[in-house]
């Protein structure tokens, strides 16, 4: 119906009542206003809400679909015009459904603050603390790689290189670097602030030189997590860490690995353990291995098990005995030249000087033989790498791809070739290079009749 002034009346009242003309009118629950749209045929809605309460500014972008919303500023529980309990300060992005965060050129998540005031705004990509941490890690890896090499254990591939000496999958061909050095270069990138094309060129050339016309930006699509206090990763079930090249877990002080069940460490090549590289630990211990229950079982299923010490080597059993057994021979030697060898049923004692046998009773009896029950030593041959490829979006091509030649180029220069089938799939290539794929080239088929539209001469991915 129409009122006496000609205004429409009898409709719904607005959700928010923040239209007061006085200052006092906005210091209450009516300081909210915004835009809300109504779902057709349902009770759902979408809204953009502004809360202009003194010192409690808030913006909310919300949809009732899966309770998805972005809250910024002074976070409060609200229901229409009601301002409820305080929920925190900052930003909240939440949904009851699936969520994804994607950035094709990289993503930085940091708890280190940057200057953000009216007089000064630091660049959004500033990651100086992360660069400092990664530089410290690079120096730490260099130190322990040198120690590992000195003590003849397994060196660090993240420092020496993975796909080759001083090479990694991340570094460019014209400026190869080991994984950690390549990571440091990537997070230290500087991009042009005036032109997108120039910025992309800086990233491609891995520019790290600072300039007043450049801003911090990673040279590669990295996800960088930098924590000022601590970083916690937890999962109710399983937590997986996997990549295609190398994983480094390092700390400036202590590291602990604790499990409630078995702890398994499996590698395709070698396991290197180095202790006491700079100084012994508590109680003058270097490496300590203790089994609170059951035996300690050390085996070399293929090759030699060597136990070496620069000074004294002590093996003790507090309650039982120690058994040393080998299918061929056992040799105990010192650097001075003394040696005891058990081989071919003989015990040979050698020394460059005087041989002294100290015992209250000396008995040398005739030869004998005692069989020892050796455990079965299995040998496994792990499967090699394999690769296959498929050309997608066949509907956009105007010819049959069956029989199309292809080439798979690897970073180490090796090559795999074959022919595609009618679905665009290649054959399965076994025992291929570990260096990673550089590019895949699909070549044109032989010339077709004139009435058949020819394909592209070269498709290079």
Q: Can you put this structure into words, describing what you see?
A:
- This protein has 461 residues and is mainly β.
- The protein is built from four helices and 18 strands.
- The chain has a five-stranded antiparallel beta sheet with strand order 1-2-3-4-5, with no helix packed on it.
- Strand 1 and strand 2 form a beta hairpin.
- Helix 1 (128-150) runs antiparallel to helix 3 (179-187).
Name some characteristics of this structure.
461 residues, mainly beta, five-stranded antiparallel β-sheet, four-stranded antiparallel β-sheet, 4 helices, 10% helix, disordered C terminus
Write the layout of secondary structure elements.
Elements: E1 32-38, E2 45-51, E3 58-63, E4 68-79, E5 82-94, E6 107-110, H1 128-150, H2 157-160, H3 179-187, E7 190-192, H4 196-204, E8 214-216, E9 223-226, E10 329-333, E11 339-343, E12 346-350, E13 386-387, E14 405-410, E15 415-419, E16 429-430, E17 437-443, E18 458-460
Parallel strand pairs: 6-9
Antiparallel strand pairs: 1-2, 2-3, 3-4, 4-5, 7-8, 10-11, 11-12, 13-16, 14-15, 14-17, 17-18
Helix pairs in contact: 1-3
């Amino acid at each position: 119906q129409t009122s006496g002034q000609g205004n429409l009346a009898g409709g719904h009242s607005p959700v928010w009542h923040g239209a007061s003309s006085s200052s006092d009118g906005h210091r209450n629950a009516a300081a909210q206003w915004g835009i809300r749209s109504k779902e057709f045929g349902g009770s759902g809605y979408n809204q953009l809400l502004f809360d202009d309460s003194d010192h409690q500014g808030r913006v909310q972008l919300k949809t009732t679909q899966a309770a998805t919303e972005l809250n910024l500023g002074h976070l409060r529980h609200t229901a229409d015009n009601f301002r409820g309990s305080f929920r925190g300060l900052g930003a909240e992005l939440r949904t009851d459904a699936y969520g994804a965060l994607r950035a094709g050129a990289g993503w930085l998540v940091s708890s280190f603050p940057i200057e953000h005031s009216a007089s000064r705004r630091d660049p959004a990509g500033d990651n100086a603390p992360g660069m400092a941490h990664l530089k410290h890690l690079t120096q730490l890896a260099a130190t322990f790689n040198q120690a590992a090499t000195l003590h003849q254990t397994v060196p660090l591939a993240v420092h020496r290189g993975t796909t080759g000496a001083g090479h990694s999958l991340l570094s460019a061909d014209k400026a190869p670097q080991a994984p950690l050095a390549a990571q440091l270069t990537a997070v230290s990138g500087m991009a042009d602030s005036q032109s997108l094309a120039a910025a992309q060129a800086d990233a491609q050339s891995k520019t790290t030189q600072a300039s007043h016309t450049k801003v911090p930006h990673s040279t590669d699509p990295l996800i960088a997590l930098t924590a000022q206090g601590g970083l916690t990763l937890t999962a109710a079930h399983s937590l997986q860490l996997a990549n295609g090249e190398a994983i480094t877990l390092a700390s400036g002080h202590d590291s602990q690995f604790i499990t409630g069940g078995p702890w398994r460490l499996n590698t395709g090549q070698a396991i290197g353990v180095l202790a006491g590289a700079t100084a012994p630990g508590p109680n003058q211990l270097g490496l300590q291995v203790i089994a609170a229950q059951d035996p300690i079982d050390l085996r070399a299923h293929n090759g030699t098990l060597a136990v070496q010490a620069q000074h004294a080597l002590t093996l003790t059993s507090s309650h039982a005995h120690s058994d040393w057994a080998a299918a061929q021979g056992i040799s105990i030697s010192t650097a001075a030249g003394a040696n005891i060898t058990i081989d071919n049923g003989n015990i040979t004692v050698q020394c460059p000087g005087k041989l002294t046998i100290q015992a209250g009773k000396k008995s040398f009896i005739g030869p004998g033989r005692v069989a020892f029950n050796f455990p079965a030593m299995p040998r496994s041959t792990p499967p090699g790498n394999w690769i296959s490829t498929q050309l997608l979006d066949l509907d956009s091509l105007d010819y049959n791809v069956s029989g199309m030649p292809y080439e798979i180029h690897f970073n180490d220069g090796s090559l795999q070739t074959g022919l595609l089938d009618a679905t665009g799939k290649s054959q399965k290539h076994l025992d291929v290079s570990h260096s990673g794929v550089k590019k895949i080239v699909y070549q044109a088929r032989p010339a077709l009749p004139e009435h058949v539209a020819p394909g592209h001469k070269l498709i290079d991915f």
